[in-house]
Specification:
By secondary structure, the protein is α+β, with helices and mostly antiparallel strands. It has eleven helices and eleven strands. It has a six-stranded antiparallel β-sheet, covered by helices on one side. A three-stranded antiparallel β-sheet has the order 6-5-8, with no helix packed on it. Strands 1-3 form a two-stranded parallel sheet. β5 and β6 form a beta hairpin. The longest helix is centred in the C-terminal third of the chain and has 19 residues. It is globular, with a radius of gyration of 19 Å. The protein starts with a strand and ends with a helix.
Length: about 280
């Protein structure tokens, strides 16, 4: 089974998704919490057999763990919270303040399952969170991680640690994604990206589609849209300047692409985020 590299947190610290069904097999460079909404949600860690989660449980998965979430019944649903604390910087991430959370990350390669009061408190804080750049939501996320990391009891979902793929493939995925993120202001082409990791264009295209789940150009546009989301909310830059920073031909080109992917214009998105 192939596992795609999911790296949607390049410009944000977290992402909350609700009412999900099946997810494609994947791994990512950030942590993930799974919150079943009902019975019938199954999770497989690495090559282990799928395990059905209790409807009131919470599952913590560390970065770079291959996993697959499926549902047993058509009406089964689950929520998730992806968290990328590394974006807070190494000084904070590696500080003593986060020692219990660092221990949680080290143990989470087998998937950690929480029940009872710990799960109840984590769920309460989860439902308070919105996908918005507000300090109160970051504090709620840190509170969830603190609750889990100080819990007296947890159970591994898999019988042993299951690392995702070869270290070489992980490093290639990180190198490629970092290069794209750092060069969104420049015209990018597949030939240059392939040469960066010493591959032919054909080998690079196959590798990229296998791990990133889509062609190079489609992924590049997705990243530009994520960057536009961030710049529209976090800055007062004119649309034309955002278009220039993201290597669009014009503000109208950005607006057309943004509306196709987000269902609204950049101006409408900025107004809604600032309400």
């Amino acid at each position: 089974m192939d596992y795609a590299f999911d790296n949607r947190l390049d410009f944000t610290l977290f992402d909350k998704l609700q009412q999900q069904q099946d997810s494609a097999p994947h791994f990512h460079p950030y942590s993930q919490l799974v919150f079943p909404r009902s019975e019938g949600v199954l999770v497989a860690i690495g090559t282990a057999e799928p395990v059905e989660l209790a409807a009131d449980a919470v599952l913590f998965i560390s970065p770079f763990v291959r996993h697959h979430v499926t549902v047993r019944t058509a009406d089964a649903r689950w929520d998730s919270l992806a968290i990328n604390l590394a974006r807070l910087g190494p000084e904070f991430f590696n500080s003593h303040y986060l020692t219990p959370i660092q221990d949680l990350l080290r143990h989470g390669f087998a998937g950690l399952l929480f029940h009872g009061g710990t799960a109840m408190h984590a769920r309460r804080d989860f439902f308070m969170i919105r996908n918005s750049f507000r300090m109160e939501y970051l504090i709620s996320i840190l509170q969830i991680l603190h609750t889990l990391s100080t819990a007296r009891e947890w159970h591994p979902l898999a019988s042993e640690q299951n690392h995702p793929v070869e270290q070489r493939d992980i490093q290639l995925c990180l190198t490629i994604s970092e290069y794209i993120r750092e060069h969104l202001s420049e015209p990018l082409d597949i030939a240059h990206a392939a040469s960066l990791v010493h591959m032919s264009e054909s080998s690079f295209s196959r590798f990229f589609k296998r791990f990133f789940g889509k062609p190079f150009h489609a992924y590049l546009i997705d990243k530009k849209m994520e960057a536009a989301d961030y710049l529209l909310f976090a800055t007062r830059l004119p649309i034309q300047e955002i278009a220039d920073r993201l290597a669009f031909n014009s503000a109208s080109h950005l607006a057309m692409t943004f509306k196709r992917h987000r269902g609204m214009t950049p101006g409408e998105y900025r107004s809604r985020q600032n309400e």
